[in-house]
Specification:
The complex is a heterodimer of chains A (498) and B (485).
Chain A (H helix, E strand, L loop, with lengths): L6 H18 L12 H28 L8 E9 L4 E7 L3 H18 L8 H20 L3 H10 L1 H11 L4 H30 L4 H4 L6 H18 L8 H8 L2 H26 L1 H27 L4 H20 L4 H32 L10 H4 L1 H15 L5 H16 L1 H27 L15 H19 L2 H16 L3
Antiparallel strand pairs in A: 1-2
Helix pairs in contact in A: 1-2, 1-4, 2-3, 2-4, 3-4, 3-11, 3-14, 4-5, 4-6, 5-7, 6-7, 7-9, 7-10, 9-11, 9-12, 10-11, 10-13, 11-13, 11-14, 12-13, 12-18, 13-14, 13-17, 13-18, 14-16, 14-17, 14-19, 14-20, 16-18, 16-19, 17-18, 17-19
Chain B lengths: L1 H9 L5 H6 L1 H19 L5 H22 L4 E3 L4 E3 L1 H22 L2 H4 L4 H18 L4 H19 L6 H32 L4 H6 L6 H17 L8 H8 L2 H26 L4 H24 L4 H22 L2 H27 E3 L2 E2 L9 H4 L1 H15 L5 H15 L3 H26 L8 E2 L3 H15 L1 H12 L5
Antiparallel strand pairs in B: 1-2, 3-4, 3-5
Helix pairs in contact in B: 3-4, 3-7, 4-5, 4-7, 5-7, 5-13, 5-16, 7-8, 7-13, 8-9, 8-13, 9-11, 9-12, 12-15, 13-15, 13-16, 14-15, 14-20, 15-16, 15-19, 15-20, 16-18, 16-19, 16-21, 18-20, 18-21, 19-20
Classes of the chains: A mainly alpha (498), B mainly alpha (485).
Chain lengths: 498, 485
């Protein structure tokens, strides 16, 4: 019976429904003009339960998912604008499902971690977050180029508000930079999409995939898509919005930004650029390798020089995403597997690191690496958690970070050993800056630690840090949990290159 | 059809068919005259409100007349024609006039335009617009153009004691008269070289090599560009927008531009289709310079209505992209764009009119400071309108922009489309600036929300259209698809 339900659309619109429910909770004011505590709790609980329900639904989907099926699953199809050939088509394959599960996993964590940190306009915050989740899930499940683009850009609206309203001191600058940078990237994709619809007569991805574009068309269209995805990833010369956005965003915003929004670029490459423009992808391969290598080495050094720990993690994200683009453009199984695995694991690890930074920031109200220290004695439980996350980010064998990097290295060695060597170098660089970070934070001597009243992680923080650690270890030991999903889609992508 | 049969069988009066085709205009004109007399003798106390109500009533009846009466035909010895396209434009114009009436109903007092003449002038100008989109010869074209423009000049000066209003009116009148002069000179050139002012005869003559006709056409295009405030003929727009009271600004920003675009489409797609190659270069220049001036010029503005003026210049550039495309897709894109833009502007002006600071209507962008804290719902509405004007999906503005660039790429104007989307990113900046002021900044003096039923209705209607346009899209698609030039 449940097979006939539009289960994927329900999943996309469930968070919007939750947001609507929150909208209905009245803003009852007490005498001081503040919202009553009761309705604040209701708002938080509704958003938490909506996001948990969404997560459970994605788990249900992944249980019912068939690994060996070559077609898209849970397909839904409705005519939208017949005269322009736009249809509403959503469906899942092994490529999109891990990202959807990751999104639905991170959102409850974000909501829990902003439980007490978001003090004002909590209702609007939760609504923005749930709408953001809906748009992201919609983007990962869209199988029509126009529907994809609509979700892809719609994400900007809630994210702009999250950074701009609940962000740090320089939040306006950061939110403007984020918005305009990303918009500038994606309008060129709009032109490419319009061209594709004009030539093929449809925007349905399944039909567009059958169309063979000529070499020149591919080269130009690839560039159109490339700019929007490269800004999102972000690749090296287009990355400057990321540190600002990360530093100014609230903790939950940073988690979702690093965990999910950066993956939209990599996902876009795999879903559109590679299958639609195989010749152009081969042509641009060396250039992308070059940009990725620069990103890995350069941003590692930049990360080493940072005083602000959020900035440090932001630059390390750019370096890690460099691995992803190298893996994607290797055009072999190991590279693609490694890229997607790296994206999933980086989603968890960087999310966890931002969460950990948020925990310190809540207590000390500083992110300056020189002012922090000695958490190994003041917050022992926290230091253990942070160690797991740091080692995961370094890529220690046994953590999920290792699998992705090593697969990418194997994949790139087959194509271009030089790229493998340069990117392998960054494993050492990454270890240097991350271990420096951990040494200073946990064992260093802080200048003004007496000022702060520091208590160890509380129950709520413990509950959100534990699943992250479990997943980092679990994926490190049993990578096949993720890799099983990817076999068929990667086989299909690589088939277009033969 | 039924009415047609009755007329053919029973009322054999010569010219009655033409009367029937022009019924909306005739109705508006006659009832306006009657309304004037009624006003003098009966509406003593509540002169403005009563005439306003009757005006709404007249517009609604004219709407149904335009919708239900025979929709194609030529009348009055080829001076006048009605097609599905012109009916579409008439309906959109009547919609926007309806909005103007609703906006001014309770706000005329505070805006200083509480004269019943406002309503009469509005109705007369409407009559001119409806005739303009139906004109089938240069004579009707020019007379209708003046009939729609002259009442507007007077309306701009309605706020008698305000120096800015007087300046705006004078500026608008002088430049408008100049542009009318250009158009008249162009028409006379075309008449001299073709020997006729009928659109049909002009369109039948091969025009390609004739310098005189081309020159006349350029003059007409320049005059029309004046009226739709397309750069480089946009200079009047910011001053006039700033100086005039808000309901009239809304009127100037929508209805006359829609009507002139309607006749411009007819001129370009039908009458001068033979020399479209020469024309399209000119329109590309108009379109690109409008986008450039509109996007760059708005960045430094501090006055809200000046900013809207520049943004409307930029939007005019986007609409002209659809004109360049010279295809059915371009035509439909313009129609979509006008519908979407009309509703967005309605929402924005309804919000501007409903807000007051220190008992005065708001003027500066910085007056919106802290709007979110004072009135969350209104500020979220304005947020949605701003994102929609910037063309962010899934809001309505995105679809308009998308369709316009779709038509341009479909006709092979790649560079124009790429430049267009880049300008649209620049223009996103100043829409974000308004959002920043509302949401990210706080102010000491609270804003007072003085919205009444009509304004709330308009805000909700615009919100509905801009948020749910993706759901309405198939319906519009069905309605607009069959309209051809």
């Amino acid at each position: 019976m449940i097979e006939n339900w539009p289960i994927l659309s329900i999943l996309i619109f469930l968070p919007i429904f939750g947001a609507f429910l929150i909208l209905l909770i009245p803003n009852k004011l007490n005498q001081d003009g503040e919202i009553l505590k009761n309705s604040i709790t209701n708002i938080k609980l509704v958003s938490l339960w909506t996001s948990i329900m969404t997560f459970l639904m994605t788990l249900l989907l992944s249980l019912k998912f068939n690994y060996t099926e070559k077609q898209y699953q849970f397909l839904e199809f409705y005519e939208w604008v017949p005269s322009l050939g736009i249809v509403y088509r959503v469906g899942l394959d092994g490529l999109s499902l891990p990202f959807i599960v990751l999104t639905a996993f991170l959102v409850p964590i974000c909501i829990l971690c902003s439980w007490n940190t978001i003090q004002h306009k909590i209702k609007e915050f939760m609504i923005s977050f749930l709408i953001l989740e809906a748009f992201i899930i919609g983007m990962f499940s869209a199988l029509d180029i126009v529907v994809f683009y609509i979700f892809f850009e719609a994400v900007l609206i809630p994210m702009f508000l999250i950074i701009g309203i609940w962000g740090g001191v320089e939040r306006i600058y950061a939110s403007f930079k984020f918005f305009l940078y990303t918009l500038l990237g994606s309008v060129l994709m709009l032109i490419a999409i319009i061209y594709i619809i004009g030539t093929t007569g449809t925007s349905d991805l399944m039909q567009v995939l059958d169309y063979d574009f000529s070499k020149t068309e591919q080269l130009l269209l690839f560039l159109g898509f490339f700019f929007s995805f490269a800004v999102k990833v972000p690749m090296w010369p287009f990355h400057t919005w990321l540190p600002d956005a990360h530093v100014q965003a609230p903790t939950a915003g940073s988690i979702i930004l690093a965990g999910i929004l950066l993956k939209m670029g990599g996902y876009g490459f795999l879903r559109f650029s590679l299958p639609l423009f195989p010749d152009a992808s081969l042509f641009y391969q060396p250039y992308i390798f070059f940009l990725s290598c620069v990103a890995i080495v350069y941003t590692s050094f930049v990360a080493f020089a940072q005083q602000d720990i959020k900035k440090l993690i932001a630059y390390s994200s750019v370096a890690h995403m460099g691995f992803v683009t190298i893996g994607i453009f290797c055009f072999n199984t190991q590279g693609l597997d490694g890229a997607v695995f790296q994206m999933v694991s980086h989603g968890i690890i960087s999310g966890a690191l931002f969460l950990a930074i948020g925990v310190i920031y809540e207590r000390t109200h500083t992110r300056d690496i020189n002012k922090l220290g000695d958490f190994a004695t003041t917050m022992p439980k926290y230091s253990v958690f942070l160690m797991f996350f740091t080692l995961g980010s370094v890529g220690l064998p046994g953590t999920s970070g290792f699998i992705g990097e090593v697969l990418v290295l194997i994949g790139s060695w087959k194509v271009n050993p030089l790229v493998a060597i340069i990117s392998g170098l960054s494993l050492i660089l990454g270890a240097i800056y991350m271990l420096r970070f951990y040494r200073k934070i946990s064992f260093g001597i802080s200048e003004n630690q007496d000022k702060y009243e520091i208590h160890d992680v509380n129950m709520r923080e413990f509950m959100i840090l534990i699943p992250l650690v479990i997943f980092i270890i679990l994926f490190g030991i049993f990578p096949n949990i993720v890799l099983n999903f990817l076999k068929v889609p990667h086989f299909l992508i690589l088939e277009t290159f033969k | 059809m039924f009415t047609q049969n009755i007329i053919n069988n029973y009322l054999q009066i010569p010219g009655i068919d033409g009367m029937l085709l022009a019924m909306p205009e005739i109705f508006i004109f006659c009832s306006t005259l009657i309304l004037m007399i009624l006003d003098i003798f009966f509406f003593k106390e509540k002169s403005f409100k009563n005439t306003n109500k009757f005006g709404i009533f007249i517009i609604i009846i004219a709407f149904f007349l335009a919708l239900l009466l025979p929709s194609t035909g030529v009348a009055f010895n080829g001076l006048y024609f009605v097609s599905e396209l012109s009916t579409f434009f008439k309906l959109i114009i009547l919609f926007s006039i309806f909005f103007v009436f609703l906006l001014s109903y309770n706000k005329a007092d505070i805006e200083g335009i509480k004269f019943s003449e406002f309503n009469f002038l509005l109705l007369l100008s409407t009559c001119g617009m409806l005739i303009l989109v139906s004109s089938n010869s240069f004579l009707t074209f020019f007379l209708a153009l003046e009939l729609q423009a002259l009442p507007i000049y007077v309306m701009c000066a309605l706020k008698k004691n305000d120096i800015k209003s007087a300046e705006a009116s004078l500026k608008y009148f002088l430049l408008g008269a100049l542009s009318s002069g250009f158009i008249l000179f162009g028409i006379s050139l075309i008449y001299g070289f073709v020997g006729s002012i009928s659109f049909e005869q002009v369109s039948n003559i091969s025009l390609k090599e004739n310098m005189g006709i081309n020159f006349g056409l350029i003059l007409i295009l320049a005059g029309v560009a004046f009226k739709i405030s397309s750069a480089p003929f946009h200079m009047w727009a910011p001053d006039v927008y700033e100086g005039t009271p808000s309901p009239i600004t809304f009127f100037i920003a929508t209805a006359p531009k829609i009507s002139i675009l309607g006749i411009l489409i007819y001129l370009i797609y039908r009458v001068f289709s033979g020399i479209h190659g020469n024309l399209s270069d000119l329109i590309i220049v108009l379109s690109l310079s409008s986008m450039l001036v509109g996007s760059i010029g708005a960045i430094v503005q501090k006055n809200l209505k000046r900013l809207i003026a520049y943004s409307s210049i930029a939007h005019m550039g986007f609409i002209l992209v659809g004109m360049v495309a010279f295809s059915e897709k371009g035509l439909h894109a313009i129609m979509y764009y006008l519908i979407i833009y009309l509703f967005l502007l309605t929402g924005v002006f309804a919000i501007i009119l409903s807000l007051q600071k220190d008992d005065k209507p708001i003027e500066l962008i910085s007056d919106l400071k802290g709007l979110y804290n004072d009135h969350p719902f209104i500020s979220i509405c304005l947020l949605i309108f701003m994102f929609s004007l910037a063309g962010i999906p899934p809001l309505s503005g995105f679809f308009g922009k998308w369709l316009v660039f779709f038509s341009a790429i479909d006709s092979g104007f790649y560079i124009l489309a790429i430049l267009g989307v880049l300008f649209s990113v620049i223009s996103a900046f100043y829409y974000l600036k308004i959002i920043r002021v509302m949401f990210f900044e706080n102010s000491d003096t609270p804003l007072i929300l003085d919205g009444n039923r009509e304004i709330r209705f308009l805000i909700n209607l615009s919100l509905f259209v801009s948020v749910l346009f993706f759901a309405l899209f198939p319906i519009f698609d069905y309605l607009i698809l069959n309209i051809r030039i």
